[in-house]
Write a structure and sequence with these properties.
Distance between the termini: 36 Å
Low-confidence stretches: none
Helix content: over 70%
Number of strands: 0
Largest sheet: none
């Protein structure tokens, strides 16, 4: 086993071990995604019944509207859980006052990031897969019926979540504990521009221009096209992937700069105090 991989695995295993012996932590991973699915699922069922019962209403149109809402909820959880997985795993090191000890070891910054991404992937799957199961059991909605393109939707949303998380970590390195609340809030601020529950076309023109700069908006436009017409919008997926590369490059550069500055100031030992 290569030394770099061993260091990444060692830090990854440390975080996984926290969940192995703590059922409240494991429960928390799935609690919010499943709760969101229950709330939005019943809302989608109510709206579908109203649409079908309206004069000129169509059962097929009602089913598509409900499916689009459920698909949006599930896929947005992928981005949320990916972002929170990285940010919260980093804050675990701060809360346990372990960040300084980690970097006394030969661990490099990119190895820390690699371990955090691994933790994020595990947390995301542990949270989203039960919600997908609930959607199927309660509402007969199967996200995987969209086909292999779901993997591309997941990948793009995870990349966006990781880019936002690196930005949040950079702010924590710069501003300390005062920026920790951003780990839970910053991605919610992008929800209006991500077109999770509606197409970009319904937004006012100034907001529409901003929405097209958010990778998730192209993912959800592609999801609705796949649900409604069965068409894979490769152009939207390509735009999402290109924007994600830009976001990740910018977030990585910001993280590298703030990490160097925190090390220069000696702030790695004092963050969170």
């Amino acid at each position: 086993m290569k030394p770099a991989f061993r260091r990444v695995w060692g830090l990854l295993y440390r975080h996984l071990a926290l969940y192995r012996r703590s059922w409240p932590r494991l429960l928390e991973l799935a609690y919010w995604p499943v709760l969101q699915m229950c709330i939005w699922g019943f809302t989608a069922r109510f709206l579908a019944q109203r649409i079908a019962a309206a004069p000129g209403g169509s059962i097929h149109a009602a089913a598509l509207a409900g499916a689009a809402l459920l698909g949006g909820v599930l896929l947005w959880e992928v981005a949320l859980r990916s972002q929170m997985g990285v940010a919260i795993a980093f804050m675990e090191e701060i809360w346990s006052r372990n960040l300084g000890h980690v970097f006394v070891s030969p661990l490099r910054p990119w190895e820390l990031v690699g371990a955090l991404l691994g933790v994020s992937l595990a947390r995301m799957l542990a949270g989203v897969l039960p919600a997908i199961g609930v959607a199927y059991l309660l509402y007969a909605f199967n996200l995987f019926a969209l086909g292999p393109v779901v993997v591309l939707f997941f990948a793009n949303l995870m990349m966006m979540g990781w880019a936002v998380a690196l930005g949040v970590i950079s702010l924590i390195l710069r501003h300390g504990a005062g920026a920790e609340a951003l780990a839970w809030s910053v991605l919610f601020g992008l929800t209006p521009f991500a077109a999770v529950f509606y197409p970009v076309a319904v937004l006012p023109a100034p907001m529409r221009a901003l929405a097209f700069m958010v990778p998730a908006s192209h993912v959800f436009e592609g999801m609705r096209a796949a649900l409604i017409s069965g068409v894979t919008r490769w152009d939207q997926l390509g735009l999402a992937f290109g924007l994600n590369l830009v976001w990740i490059a910018a977030a990585t550069a910001l993280f590298a700069y703030q990490f160097r500055e925190a090390r220069r100031r000696g702030a790695l030992l004092g963050i969170g105090e």
